[in-house]
Amino acid sequence: MNYYDLLGISNNATKEEIKKAYKAQMKKWHPDINKDKDAVSMSMKINEAKDILLDEIKRKEYDDFLKHKETNTYEKYSGTRRESKSPYNYSEYENKTVTKWEYLREYLNSKNIKTVKKIVSLILVSIESFFCFILKWFIIGLAFISFLLSDIIMITFYYIYPIIVLLTFFLIYILVSSGVNGLINNHLVELRGLIIVIIVYVSSFVLTLIGKKLISQKVFNFLYNKLDIYLFKKAVFYR
């Protein structure tokens, strides 16, 4: 939630609208009126929002702050945080880390959004969350299968490697004594078998690398977290 959301106004609100919204919020949150334990902190935040938005220079800088970062609320729930180059410190409230579900709750409680749009967003968010949940476990499953196959190949090779070594020496002997033509003409089956075994053995290392890549932080964030963020933005019609 940014200062505009806090006051319940649009980004294009006039100074008069800002003042009117400020008065309305202060009537609700002023400590002399509201005895809630959060009333003091909320009134401070409302005052801060009013001071920034009524100052033309600070408001322009604040709008740039909102515009150039990917988003202050959508991305932080994933653990991603970008440092602002803003010369102003917009308080701990503006930098508060929120979860996707906390943002959705604020979105659904907003009076500026139509009920139909809220219902559609709720359905879309549920679908995208289920899809990302399935995707996460699909990635983990692929990694598990990769590690499992790699282990099976390595264990199998451990037991048959004496046979492989003997076959290799035998084929080398045939190559030296009979040449390439003799090897291909008389022992093609054995040669193919050895090549297949070598390829399968090498693939065990490839499978291990694939498994590690699938569960790496970089790939996992790209395939799951960033996709989740992107779809969540679309679900709540974020521009």
Topology readout:
Elements lengths: L2 H5 L7 H15 L9 H16 L1 H13 L22 H4 L5 H10 L5 H72 L1 H27 L2 H19 L4
Helix pairs in contact: 2-3, 7-8, 7-9
What do you see in this structure?
- The chain has 239 residues and is mainly alpha-helical.
- The chain has helices at residues 3-7, 15-29, 39-54, 56-68, 91-94, 100-109, 115-186, 188-214, 217-235.
- It has two domains: 3-99, DnaJ domain (Helix Hairpins, Orthogonal Bundle), CATH 1.10.287; 124-235.
- It is built from nine helices and no strands.
- α2 (15-29) packs antiparallel against α3 (39-54) and α7 runs antiparallel to α8 (188-214).
Key descriptive features of the protein:
2 domains, single chain, 239 residues, mainly alpha, 0% strand, Helix Hairpins, 9 helices
Offer a concise description of the structure.
This protein is mostly helical and 239 residues long. 76% of the residues lie in helices and 0% in strands.
